[in-house]
Amino acid sequence: MMIGEVAEKSGFSVHTLRYYEKIGLLPLSHRDPGGRRSYDDDVLRWLEFLGRLKDLGMPIRDRVLYARLRAEGDSTIEARRNLLQTYRDELAIRVASLTETLEVLDAKIAGYDTMVRPLHGAPK
C-alpha cells in the first residue's frame, strides 16, 4: 500500500505517517524504485493500536518507547507488558470516575424529569 492509501484507511494524515516513521513509531517503509513509501497490511493494525494508545492519553515519548521495545523483540515482552499495565491501571481509574459522574448526571436528569412532568401535564 502506498502512503496515501494507508492514510485513507487509517485516518492518519500523510504528514503524520511520515512523522511517525521519522520518530520511530512506524518501522521504516519499503521504497519502490521511485522512492515512494510502500507498506504492508500489518501497518494498519499497528496504527489502530497506536491510535488507541494516544486516545488513552499515553504521551508520544511512551508510544515511541513501546515501539522501540516492540522492535527489539521477545526479550522486551515484560517491559512492554509493564508499560501497558501502568496505562491500563490509570484508564481503569478514569473509567470508574466517569461511571460515577454518569450516575450523578443520570440522577440529576431523572430529578428534573419528575419536576418537568407536572408542569406540562400528563402525557396524552
Automatic annotation (TrEMBL):
User: What keywords were assigned to this record?
Assistant: DNA-binding
One term of GO molecular function: DNA-binding transcription factor activity
Q: Tell me which SUPFAM superfamilies the record gives.
A: Putative DNA-binding domain
Keyword check for DNA-binding, yes or no: yes
Q: Which Pfam families match?
A: MerR_1
The segment(s) forming the HTH merR-type domain are 1-59
UniProt cross-references to CDD domains, sorted A to Z: HTH_YyaN
- Source domain of life is Bacteria
InterPro entries according to UniProt: DNA-bd_dom_put_sf (IPR009061), MerR-type_HTH_dom (IPR000551), MerR_fam (IPR047057)
Give yes or no: UniProt keyword DNA-binding.
yes
Q: Which PANTHER family match?
A: HTH-TYPE TRANSCRIPTIONAL REGULATOR ADHR, REDOX-CYCLING DRUG-SENSING TRANSCRIPTIONAL ACTIVATOR SOXR
**Name of the protein in its database record:** MerR family transcriptional regulator
